[in-house]
Amino acid sequence: MNYLPDSKRYQSMEYRRCGKSGLKLPAVSLGLWHNFGHVDVLENSRAILRAAFDAGITHFDLANNYGPPPGSAEENFGKLIKEDFSGYRDEMVISTKAGYYMWEGPYGEWGSKKYLVSSLDQSLRRMKLDYVDIFYHHRPDPDTPLEETMGALDLIVRQGKALYAGISNYRPEEAARALAILRELGTPCLIHQPRYSMFDRWVEGGLLDLLEKEGVGCIPFSPLEQGLLTDKYIKGIPEGSRASKSHGFLKKHQITDEKIDKILALNKIAKERGQKLAHMALSWILKNPVITSVLIGVSTVEQLEDSLLCLKNYDFSEEELQKIEEVLARRR
Ligand SMILES: NC(=O)c1ccc[n+]([C@@H]2O[C@H](COP(=O)([O-])OP(=O)(O)OC[C@H]3O[C@@H](n4cnc5c(N)ncnc54)[C@H](OP(=O)(O)O)[C@@H]3O)[C@@H](O)[C@H]2O)c1
């Protein structure tokens, strides 16, 4: 059936300015790391994309290697864009990345200009797009000079293949150097994409301060710690969940008793706030104005609609924050 987006789609979403740039992003963005590959059911992926756009989610995040197999999330996304969203490209912010292993030989991963330029050309072909909105370097490369990697991002933006440049997984010190090089080149870094959740708070050790000072946006990934920060694993590993799938990145050994204890206690605090843990975990990130958008993944439309409820309440009292801190600090 032909897709006609909801005419009220811009009424309930909040849009936040990305650092000091001109671009605004939805407070919740959708990532296509899992659930959009050739191993997944295309009609489910289609339903998720439609529901997201209907809810005012304008930002969709990909990478060259998303699938499995690698590249297939971009292929499926390209197909769905063509079939459902071809009239709406100007209402969408699409990102992709290169940095992890993608193809054989010396030019298929890390941070050389050769790899980044070739990889983006491949991504554009797979998605059947003329340009992406944001192109990221996916992870720092210890062996390539940062000037070369940032020079490649600058070149790509000047060529019009991407409108903005971003970095991902860069620690504060290397991020500071990358931001300085990009500024010098005249292509200021738009955004940083780090992992950040209640269970992984490394960004609080200097990165968020740096991004605030430099006026760079921040879009944390895996805010639910791949599904752990919900009530789903409290009674074991449900069939069909990420931890149950052989290609899922959440491994069974990561679901420890200590984490389950914390999840149970956090679940209780969430209930007292009138939320589910999934909502509270997302609102806890969004409470900080340095955060531009929280980058979620979902395997169903129901999860998407559920997670969006985080927007209803991201005010925390001092007492609630203190209780959360106590739970997160607990050791078994
Ligand atoms: N830059 C990087 O290096 C990097 C790395 C990783 C991810 N990312 C980006 O970040 C995006 C999000 O990462 P992520 O998928 O790990 O995020 P996440 O939001 O932490 O986890 C998503 C998973 O949580 C479960 N879930 C989501 N909403 C739920 C709800 N309301 N109730 C219960 N369970 C729920 C689902 O698991 P089930 O599948 O079990 O249902 C879903 O697949 C990716 O798609 C990608 O775009 C970037």
General description of the model:
With 332 residues, this protein is α/β, with parallel strands linked by helices. It has a single domain, classed as NADP-dependent oxidoreductase domain (TIM Barrel), CATH 3.20.20.100. The protein has helices spanning 42-54, 72-84, 113-127, 146-158, 172-185, 207-214, 257-272, 277-286, 301-307, 318-329, and strands spanning 15-17, 24-26, 28-31, 59-61, 93-98, 132-137, 162-168, 189-193, 217-218, 294-296. Strands 9-8-7-6-5-4-3-10 form an eight-stranded parallel sheet. Strands 1-2 form a two-stranded antiparallel ribbon. The longest helix is centred in the C-terminal third of the chain and has 16 residues, at 257-272. It is globular. 45% of the residues are buried. Residues 31-34, 61, 138, 168-169, 193, 221-227, 230, 232, 241-242, 278, 295-299, 303, 306-307 line the site of NADP nicotinamide-adenine-dinucleotide phosphate.
Task: State the main characteristics.
single chain, 332 residues, alpha/beta, TIM Barrel, eight-stranded parallel β-sheet, two-stranded antiparallel sheet, 10 helices, 36% helix, binds NADP nicotinamide-adenine-dinucleotide phosphate
Characterize this entry briefly.
The chain has helices at 42-54, 72-84, 113-127, 146-158, 172-185, 207-214, 257-272, 277-286, 301-307, 318-329, and strands at 15-17, 24-26, 28-31, 59-61, 93-98, 132-137, 162-168, 189-193, 217-218, 294-296. The protein is of the alpha/beta class and 332 residues long.
